[in-house]
Amino acid sequence: MTSRRTFLKYVGGTTLTLFTYNKFGIKQALAEVPGGTLNPAAVPKFQTPMLIPPVMPKAGVIKQKRGKNIDYYEISMKQFAQQILPAGQPATTVWGYGAVNGAGSKRPLLIHNAPSLTIEAQYNRPVRVKWINNLIAANGDHLPHLLPVDQTLHWANPPGGTNDRDKRPTFTSTPGPYTGPVPMVTHVHGAVGVGDESDGYTEAWYLPDLGSKLPAGYADSGTWYEFFAGKAKSKFGATWGPGFATFQYPNLGRASADWYHDHTLGMTRLNVYAGPAGFYIIRGGPDGDAAVLDVSTGATAVLPGPAPKDGDKFPSNKTYYEIPIAIQDRSFNTDGSLFYPDTRAFFDGITGPYIPNTDISPLWNPEFFGNMMMVNGNTWPFQVVEKRRYRLRFLNGCQSRFLILDFSQIPGVEVWAIGNEGGFLAAPVNLTATNGNRLLMALAERADLIVDFTNVPVGNYVLGNVGPDEPFGGGVPGVDFAVAEAASTGQVMEFRVVPAVAPDPTTPPQFLQLPAVAALPVATVTRPLALLEEMSAFFADAPAEALLGTVAGNPNVAPGVWTKRLWMQPLTENPAVGATEIWEIYNATADAHPMHVHEVAFEVVNRQAIFVNEATQEVQVVPGSVPVAPEPWETGRKDTVIAYPGQVTRIKAQFNTPGQYVWHCHIVEHEDNEMMRPYRVGPVQTGQPPDGAAG
Ligand SMILES: [Cu+2]
Known about the structure:
Layout: E1 19-21, E2 27-29, E3 60-62, E4 70-82, E5 92-99, E6 116-122, E7 127-133, H1 161-164, E8 186-189, H2 225-236, E9 244-249, E10 256-262, H3 268-273, E11 277-283, E12 293-294, E13 322-332, E14 338-339, H4 345-348, E15 372-375, E16 378-379, E17 382-386, E18 389-396, E19 403-406, E20 414-420, E21 423-430, H5 431-434, E22 438-441, E23 446-452, E24 459-465, E25 491-498, E26 512-513, E27 525-535, E28 543-551, E29 560-565, E30 579-587, E31 593-597, E32 603-613, E33 618-621, E34 640-643, E35 647-655, E36 659-665, H6 668-671, E37 676-681
Parallel strand pairs: 4-7, 6-11, 13-18, 17-25, 27-30
Antiparallel strand pairs: 1-2, 3-4, 4-5, 7-9, 8-10, 10-11, 12-26, 13-14, 13-15, 15-16, 18-23, 19-22, 19-24, 20-21, 20-23, 24-25, 27-28, 28-29, 29-33, 30-35, 31-34, 31-36, 32-33, 32-35, 36-37
The structure holds copper (II) ion (CU).
The site of copper (II) ion (CU) has 6 residues, from loops.
């Protein structure tokens, strides 16, 4: 193993990246982020009104004799063309989810879009979804992937058949991209207390129903599909079949903005980049909007609304003051097609030899940064806003890019954070007064913001991004790292501020009393875990894969040796049902990683400085160092947390739902190449695939 990577090299096609030094002496990129053949400078900004995703129509309501009624959906994933770039430029072929049965809605919108329509769920009212893989051409043939699939990773591997699916295949020569039928399995990110059969386990994927056109010898579903099909049948009576699975979500977590996306083993980065994702918003319950008080009156507070509702037209004739905003980075070619690297050389110039002759995968890139910003499915859209308060619910849906939203180019704006992945914070946070009008958002993190345009002069203003165009390691924009390129990825969208049409009825954020966050029980187990990077044994300074691991002993008191753990190895995290545990995530890599734990909503306990000794493969908490409390916008509950390099990040969770889940880094390129591990709550399940043997 060679030394850790200290900086990132880009060798991007024909694009030469030039550097200069800014006034802080920090190296700054002059040329654009490398990407496809469509130069970001050729894409005019703020041409397209931002799409506010409408509400996903229901297929019906399942009435239960005893028990709660269930909202039922039938949603397929398919391929279609979407005008992502401004009008006049070519459309883009993407994948996306959409309802195929709207019988349970007043005015069903059977629209496939990327991002897809928003699932509106009520607290304590289950949602059941039939998720259909419809990546099939009109003639019944399978649709190949839009993007280059690297077959040398530990991936779903349908060509391996029943015996070798969900394995890292072996090759005698470097394989090209996989062109066969595409697996999918949908995960609702933030679904707390969901059964494992419904969590979108990464080895529970399924191909479209190809009938006799399924290539000979291919597995049509993943290792865990059959077991979970049986579980879904016995738990809630759903019968799965070729090309679909039916999942059920209890919606017992705190009211929050979750999101759904594909989670197939070794392919998530590509499946999500192709488009399939959407919001899943849980409302009501003890931690919902009605539990927010106005301390100046003692009455229920008024939050900005409405949000889109089922039955609204499309395009809508309504004005929304609560708006979900998904930010995703993308690159394009001049024909409008999505660009994603089809060679490792794009990342660091390594042109081979690749696997099987070295340890470097031919297509996989350790990280990917799109050179354009797509917001709710359009590049650089605009949104008209009145001089009043809005509730903007942001999602960082990028691949590898940490965002630092920057409202400071909007004069007079006031921005408050009131919620994150796990619903409302402990208290509102004035980002304008305390954080320079900025907010850091890691991959998959959500931010529930009150943005007050009341005192903003009428005019057009850009929401900026001062995160880096490269892996994030923490620190101050412009001081510790160069900020995103000002002309492209440094801009997210435009707000067009117009006069208010009516007085603002909403409660000023400083008067909001957010619902109390229940304390978790005392932890009975502490698990030291590690974030690791495997460097190539053949090429200098070249990451081969990112990994998770365990740490022996107690690094709080003495150096602890880490052990790398591959996806295929037996699981090591096995909380008892109902146990509360502290997971200590020791980051021994050079980058920050957004760590996501399925099934639970956790509390960020604190962070603390560590020593990393690569020679002895040890980590240790720096003696005498002081734990740092989470940021004020990291209070409450979360499902994704930034683990910084050189630190241990401690989270606390209660594991109440028995079953097989995963925890992983949400840099999707990392997740796809070993930075994901299974974990199980409770004992081995009767009839489950063998642990550490099947996949
Ligand atoms: Cu990572």
